[in-house]
């Protein structure tokens, strides 16, 4: 799948899509949802939050289980991320270079 360069001018919300329970993007929140928010104290950084009923949002962090597997969890310490623009003009999921 080739992805064109674009700028997201509007917020994107992550929801659980029923009945399959897949995570899907939507232009508006529906009940409980995930959202990417800009962090005030982390220059150029973002965090993922989970919002219940569209009002109370809590940070999503990472927990490492006894088996060494990292899982996303509701946590008071957010998992901080920085998005970097791709350097190639075309991106493909099937590119094996």
TrEMBL record:
Q: What is this protein called?
A: Uncharacterized protein
**Gene source species:** Eruca vesicaria subsp. sativa
């Amino acid at each position: 799948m080739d992805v064109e360069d674009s700028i997201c001018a509007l917020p994107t919300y992550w929801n659980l899509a029923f009945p399959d329970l897949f995570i899907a993007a939507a232009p508006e929140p529906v009940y409980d949802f995930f959202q990417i928010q800009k962090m005030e104290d982390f220059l150029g950084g973002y965090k993922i939050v989970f919002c219940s009923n569209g009002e109370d949002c809590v940070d999503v962090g990472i927990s490492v289980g006894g088996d060494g597997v990292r899982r996303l969890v509701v946590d008071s310490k957010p998992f901080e991320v920085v998005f970097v623009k791709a350097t190639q003009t075309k991106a493909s999921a099937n590119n094996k270079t």
